[in-house]
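Worked example 2:
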Amino acid sequence: MTQLLKDIAYVRSGDKGDTLTIGVIARTPADYDTLRRSVTPAAVKQLFGDWVKGEVSVYEVPNLHSLSVFMRNALGGGATRTLRLDQTGKSIGNAILRLPVVGP
């Protein structure tokens, strides 16, 4: 059975305009390296597909054993402009937990 990000991390997310931000935090310090291997711009872009029209950036926050993920042009124009039913960063952010974990 494939291990998913939800097994080693939790998230906090939000939005500002058309940018989605997700903090992905390792459940234990030992999971941080696996988190870094698993959450890459390419993997995030592939997971979200056409929902993310812009650039995906992943920044390391090693003192918190976490990553900060920025997805630009990812909310259909922003909360007040999109036609998506449930478009905000709070709800979409949890979807990143479906990423498969990459082993050593």
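The longest strand covers residues 9-16. The longest helix spans residues 41-48.
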